[in-house]
């Protein structure tokens, strides 16, 4: 069994993390946090989402975050875009990369965007085409890859169908999402192996939630299948805001710790990530589930 | 890669869990909890420890727990025994199996029992010999197998030496402990593979702590090496009592969830384990880190 020597961690906390927290954090604090994430060595930050502020008030300041952000040349500042209207805002904000999203589950997709998968694909095709004409790269988030809150089982065939539809539009990378945290390591290997029969491994990323404590085991399974891009959110941000203890995205610093313990290079500093998590935790208003954050607090590590 | 179809979960919560919590729980409540663990289908419970009550006040009632426990024929009620004096109490209590412990790290062993590894082996040899004469089986806990809080790195050779010394005494099973939760999945595979060159896999168990959130990834690594016995503590009991959020043993119900998601039989009911965790949590006095326990509380699953 061989695993990669180097992987890339992509930070989705400012978008996927905050989107699922109840607190509204000021633009200034978001920017200070993003600066700390970049200081930690992260080269990819999903900064915000250009969805309607009515849907996600916590990210209503996406335009301002991009306006006032000081950008580093070697960092990709990305944003989620649901449709043409969102894309217009994203282009005005001069994002480096757009992220689009669709669910592998028909029921979940409908609940999410009130459209069928095929209707959503039509919308996204236009969005990606325009973005590409404007010289942007595009990342595709496929949700509910490992299970759906409404349908339960999601077939690999359905994941393949959606993935290929996105790749055909020109999507540069697919982020395979375990949206509700039900994946297990055997399933991760099975899904990734199947996708690898028709998709280059370098186009696949894993986006795992730690709801049942299996995110790290699933990341290990991804590494064993040679996946080299993993999403995370500082602190493990993104638990459902009304559910006590529900964990959201796997904590970026916990993934970094795993990578360090396995001898895998990421170019990221664990201490820097913990600093960023420490910075944002008080503004989120609830204890974050990150193991490394808790350990650093216990050790009184005044980072 | 193949994994076992069936594994055995051994519950160490009443001993290793409570030993590291600050609360003192009444004998009556301990017994009620153990009954719930047995109802859940567990066939192995480490009930208590016959160490000096001065060392571990939380387990001072070991004799009484055994005295008043109603025993099921097909369940092994075990207890930890540090020395001949502890063994006398354990024999009087008619334990089904004794557990003895030693560290793979010289410094950790000295800190734990104020003896060198060789001195400890001499003591244990007598203990195991007497226990065997009395018809008892014996389990050997090897601590700090994957890292030591004082020495850091622990060599596999040292783990092998201690393991073989225990097996030579007649120990029936070795429980390999990641006492401080620093193991990673590659290391687990490496250590287990090396031990398997001279020890039958059926004599090896994994005892993992979830301090850095990697216990489940490490269990998966163990499964891939055909390990078929895993220790856990209901609720994830056993975090350091004075450190906020420090997680202790991996939660038995979280391991059960992993096994179910992998299609591995354990004979144990997840719901039953969650019930047992719900019962004990209020008496422990702090929120337990189990994912399944939290999920059941969110879902308002009135089990």
From TrEMBL, chains A, B:
Which Gene3D superfamilies does the protein's record reference? Aldolase class I
Give the matching SUPFAM superfamilies. Answer: Aldolase (SSF51569)
Which terms does the record give in the GO molecular function aspect? hydroxymethylglutaryl-CoA lyase activity; metal ion binding
CDD domains xref list = DRE_TIM_HMGL
InterPro entries in the record, alphabetically? Aldolase_TIM (IPR013785), HMGL (IPR043594), PYR_CT (IPR000891)
Among PROSITE patterns, the record links this protein to: PYR_CT
| Residues in Pyruvate carboxyltransferase domain copies | 7-274
Biological process GO terms, please? ketone body biosynthetic process; L-leucine catabolic process
Q: Does the keyword Metal-binding apply?
A: yes
Record keywords, A-Z: Lyase, Metal-binding
Supply the NCBIfam families for this chain: PRK05692.1
Q: By its UniProt entry, which PANTHER family does this protein fall under?
A: HYDROXYMETHYLGLUTARYL-COA LYASE
Of which family is this protein a member? Answer: Belongs to the HMG-CoA lyase family.
Q: What is this protein called?
A: Hydroxymethylglutaryl-CoA lyase
Lineage start: Bacteria, Bacillati, Bacillota, Bacilli, Bacillales
């Amino acid at each position: 069994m061989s695993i990669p020597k180097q992987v890339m961690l992509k930070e989705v906390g400012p978008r996927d993390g905050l989107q699922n927290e109840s607190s509204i954090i000021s633009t200034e604090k978001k920017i200070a946090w993003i600066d700390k994430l970049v200081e930690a060595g992260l080269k990819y930050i999903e900064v915000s989402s250009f969805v309607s502020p009515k849907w996600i008030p916590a990210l209503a300041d996406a335009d301002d975050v991009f306006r006032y952000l000081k950008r580093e040349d070697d960092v990709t500042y990305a944003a989620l875009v649901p449709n043409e209207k969102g894309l217009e805002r994203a282009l005005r904000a001069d994002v480096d990369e757009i992220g689009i999203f669709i669910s592998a589950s028909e029921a979940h997709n409908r609940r999410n965007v009130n459209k069928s998968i095929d209707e959503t694909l039509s919308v996204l095709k236009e969005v990606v085409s325009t973005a590409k004409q404007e010289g942007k790269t595009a990342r595709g988030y496929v949700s509910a890859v490992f299970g759906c809150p409404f349908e339960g089982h999601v077939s690999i065939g359905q994941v393949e169908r959606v993935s290929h539809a996105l790749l055909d539009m020109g999507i540069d990378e697919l982020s395979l999402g375990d949206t509700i945290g039900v994946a297990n390591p055997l399933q991760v290997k099975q899904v990734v192996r199947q996708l690898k029969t028709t998709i280059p491994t370098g186009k696949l990323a894993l986006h795992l939630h730690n709801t049942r404590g299996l995110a790290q085991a699933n990341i290990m399974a991804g590494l064993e299948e040679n996946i080299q891009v993993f999403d995370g959110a500082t602190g493990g941000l993104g638990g459902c805001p009304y559910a006590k203890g529900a964990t959201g995205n796997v904590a970026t610093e916990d993934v970094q710790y795993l990578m360090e313990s396995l001898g895998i290079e990421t170019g990221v500093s664990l201490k820097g990530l913990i600093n960023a998590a420490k910075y944002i935790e008080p503004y989120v208003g609830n204890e974050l589930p990150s193991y490394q954050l808790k350990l650093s607090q216990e050790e009184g590590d005044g980072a």
